[in-house]
Specification:
With 271 residues, the protein is an alpha/beta fold. It has a single domain, classed as Nucleotidyltransferase, domain 5 (2-Layer Sandwich), CATH 3.30.420. Helices cover 40% and strands 20% of the residues. Strands 1, 2, 3, 5, 6, 7 and 8 form a seven-stranded mixed sheet that branches. A two-stranded antiparallel ribbon has the order 4-9. Helix 4 packs parallel to helix 5 and helix 7 packs across helix 8. The longest helix is centred in the C-terminal third of the chain and has 20 residues.
Amino acid sequence: MEYLIWCDESDSKGKLYSNFYGGVLVKSKDYEYVQAKLLVAKKENNFFDEIKWQKVTTNYLEKYIKVMDIFFDLIKQDLVKVRIMFTKNNVFPKNLSSFHQENEFFLLYYQFIKHGFGLADSNTSNKDINLRIYFDYLPNSIEKRESFKGYIKGLNENKSFREARIKIKPENIVEVISHKHILIQFLDIVLGSMSFYLNEKYKNFNPITNQQGNRTIAKEKLCKHILDKIHEICPKFNANATTDVKNVVNLWQDKYRHWCFTPENKEVTFE
């Protein structure tokens, strides 16, 4: 069996929260069914191009709600797992070296892949599981992108990954274009809505009319709908905090999770 993970990132710097990373995981045995359901949902709602958070408008709001309902039905059935990670702006890592500062984007992405899905606790069989990771095109130099992929490949040597028999082949760490990968498109909607909500973008008003623009209104309605769907899955869900963990297995078993990443060596400011 294989795990397939599609990854995307958003707002590196937001009003209150930054460094948004998202991932959606599907097991190989479920992939064809999941993809077919999402493709049909897009076609039935006249989405013939890429769906994206930035494209949400009043005219297409109800269509976006319908396709996201299908996506969250798949999450409820545990055919799809979603993870969102972000940082809080008033929490600062201390004593960072120049290397850490220059490579923050990839260092955080590495932590997200390593821990976000609880992969180390996912395999109770005595068989290997291959991991395929599809990154939406990485925004950096070729050298840094290739170095990052090397670190991801290096998870093969991680004790927890070895014990879980999670294998990552170099050719299974790839960059892709989102319009060719439907699961990244649906992830983009969830990731965008969480950044929209946590950074209070619904409070953006037109400076002339002092009112929300139509697109902001549509995004706020879709965001509220998505939050309602998440609460159906996680009744005690709190969007701006790490989802509760009863034990490490929850990191894998939970269908939807948030992770507010906090460095061990930190300082917190209070306004």
